[in-house]
Amino acid sequence: MKFEYQARDAEGKIVTGVLDAPDQKLAAERLRNTLKLSVIDLKEKIPSQFELLIAKINPFKGKVKSKELVIFSRQLSTLVGAGVPIVQGLGILEQQAETPVFKAVLTSVKTDIEAGLGIADAMKKFPAVFSTLYVSMIRAGEVGGILDTILERLSAYLEQSEALKAKVKAAMMYPVIVAIIAGTITIFLMLFVIPTFKDIFSSFGSELPLPTRVVIGISDFIKGHIFIVLAMPVAGFFAFKKFAKTESGKRMIDSQSLKLPVFGILLKKVAIAKFTRTLGTLMRSGVPILQGLETVAATSGNVIIEGAILSCRESVKDGGRLVEPLRKSNLFPPMVVQMIGVGEETGSLDTMLMRVADFYDQEVDTAVKGLTSMIEPLIMVFMGVVIGGIVIAMFLPMLSLGDLASKMG
Question: Does the reported pTM lie above 0.70?
Answer without folding.
Answer: no
